[in-house]
TrEMBL record:
Keyword rRNA-binding included in the entry's annotation: no
Protein name: Citramalate synthase
EC identifiers of the protein: 2.3.3.21
PROSITE patterns: AIPM_HOMOCIT_SYNTH_1, PYR_CT
Organism: Cohnella phaseoli
GO BP terms: isoleucine biosynthetic process; L-leucine biosynthetic process
Pathway: Amino-acid biosynthesis; L-isoleucine biosynthesis; 2-oxobutanoate from pyruvate: step 1/3
Length: 537
């Protein structure tokens, strides 16, 4: 039977201290609901004594019936004072949270330098503050700040601070590697010592300054800690906190511990990406377990092997964490890559034919020209459908023209687009804040009368990369366009020495792909669809 662990999420508190991360009260409420559905046991919502945003968050969330324990964060009382007169402790106990985490000093250097008080007064601050919070009816947790540095400098004093927290009734004592400089071997040794002398539940809170936060957390759990503190995607101050998206599946799938239910673990990828979107922080494509490339395969030999058995190049089944296997097609692709992608799209492909070889050669030639299909799955699907006679020609482009005018009112762009839909020529004009935006608006304006669903599609990202820097302004560029319809996201690519042409190519691919999706859902009238293949989508 697996050993249960306690998961303490501090994305909404410690995670927001990361550079570039700012969450509104509404953002925090949305994320809290996702974390609760994921099954974490504690959700640290912030410091109700520090800012009005956190006060609003606690006010709004206290009425929600969260399964997790909503936790407020604060520090021990000020030196040479009493808890009853400490305004921060007052806000903490009035927050409506079920639990409170108090941070206190355990490193004698910090007591003398940061607090500028005596060692005995610091111990009194720890004991009295935790006892005060517990007396108010809240569960009290103690974050032993800088514990590992403190232990290495003065183990007797660091342990005496933990003993005071235990005597005050702390439900959990969490050992913090606040500066992130401790090594896994040190973590293991010190946590083992703490577990042997402190008769209280122990937790671990690590930072990633040496890129060891995950390893240090796993070492602490192996040494006897039973609570894990961390953040979604490892957000946090400086180099970040321990990444729960790596820790939870490793503990549960590889080390025999129980963090959340198997069904909840399957939602991990969607939670990670949701938090990334709300925080407006790009998620690393190669993030373990939940990243878009975590189970992506590019080399032909790899793809050939995983088609026989995915265990050949995958350490777990992607679905266990809600992710999926992806096969990339590039200049490194072999026939297995093409076959896998075609099967994924439901195309009837004969692997023995010359067509697959021709497609591979075509892709390699396009990549030599500057195209990149790893990050443009929609363009790749259109290319494969064209190659295997399954292309849907919903519309064709006759021409487009752009004018850009500079006036006293600023720059304006106007695009004229002529397209053909099922034999009917459509001519539209639209303005935009730039030539690409004007083209996008004109194309949509031409198509929306036939396909109203286009109103739900918008560009979510637009990237331009110069491919031949030596050619300066005459250089060839690659444009990647990401589009979404609030349910799905897809990417397309265009390449040209003219940035407008490259952008147009990516835009047309994006619209073509979206209309194929609508067609599958029955939104396109059959008389508007011209197909080159056997299947009329």
């Amino acid at each position: 039977m697996s050993t249960p662990l306690c998961i303490f999420d501090t994305t909404l508190r410690d995670g927001t201290q990361g550079e570039g991360i700012s969450l509104t009260a509404e953002d925090k409420v949305k994320i809290a609901l996702k974390l609760d559905a994921l099954g974490v046991h504690y959700i640290e919502g912030g410091n109700p004594g520090s800012n009005s945003k956190d006060i609003e968050f606690f006010r709004r969330v206290r009425e929600m019936k969260l399964q997790a324990k909503l936790t407020a964060f604060g520090s021990t009382r000020r030196k040479n004072s009493v808890c009853e007169q400490d305004i921060n402790l007052k806000h903490l106990t009035e927050s409506g949270a079920r639990a409170a985490t108090l941070v206190g000093k355990t490193w004698d250097f910090h007591v003398h330098t940061a607090l500028q008080t005596t060692l005995d007064e610091n111990l009194a601050m720890i004991y009295e503050s935790l006892a005060y919070v517990k007396h108010s009816g809240m569960e009290a947790l103690f974050d032993a700040e800088h514990f590992f540095d403190g232990y290495k400098a003065n183990p007797d004093y660091a342990l005496s601070a933990l003993a005071k927290a235990k005597d005050a009734g702390a439900a959990w004592i969490i050992l913090c590697d606040t500066n992130g400089g401790t090594l896994p071997s040190e973590i293991s040794e010190i946590v083992s010592r703490v577990v042997s002398v402190i008769d209280a539940p122990i937790g671990i809170h690590t930072h990633n300054d040496c890129e060891l936060a995950v390893a240090n957390t796993l070492a602490a759990i192996s040494a006897g800690a039973r609570q894990v503190q961390g953040t979604i995607n490892g957000y946090g101050e400086r180099c970040g906190n321990a990444n729960l998206c790596s820790i939870m599946p490793t503990l549960q799938l590889k080390m025999g511990y129980s963090c959340v239910s198997d069904e909840q673990l399957k939602s991990l990828t969607s939670v990670a990406r949701y938090v990334s979107e709300i925080a407006n922080v790009h998620m690393p494509v190669n993030q373990p377990y939940v990243g878009n490339a975590a189970f992506a395969h590019k080399g032909g030999i790899h793809v050939s092997a995983i088609m026989k058995d995915s265990k050949t190049y995958e350490h777990i089944e992607p679905l266990l964490v809600g992710n999926k296997q992806r096969v990339l097609v590039s200049e490194l692709a072999g026939q297995s890559n093409i076959l896998s992608k075609a099967q994924e799209m439901g195309l009837d492909v004969n692997p023995e034919s010359m067509k697959s070889r021709e497609v591979i050669d075509r892709i390699k030639e396009l990549e030599h020209q500057g195209y990149q299909f790893e990050g443009a799955d929609a363009s790749l699907e259109l290319l494969l459908r064209d190659a295997y006679g399954d292309a849907v020609q919903i519309f064709t482009v006759d021409s487009f023209k752009i004018t850009v005018e500079k006036s006293a009112g600023g720059m304006t762009s106007e695009a004229i687009v002529k397209i053909n839909v099922a034999g009917e020529q459509v001519y539209t004009v639209a303005e935009g804040n730039g030539p690409v935006n004007a083209l996008d608006n004109a194309l949509r304006k031409a198509l929306v009368q036939f396909f109203p669903g286009i109103r739900d599609i918008h560009l979510s990202d637009y990237k331009v990369r110069v491919l031949d820097e030596k050619d300066a302004t005459a250089a060839k560029v690659r444009v990647l366009v990401e589009s979404t319809n609030f349910k799905d996201t897809w990417s397309t690519v265009g390449v040209s020495s003219n940035v407008i042409e490259a952008s147009w190519e990516a835009l047309v691919d994006s619209i073509r792909y979206s209309l194929i999706g609508m067609d599958k859902g029955g939104a396109i009238a059959p008389e508007l669809v011209q197909t080159n293949g056997l299947v009329n989508h």
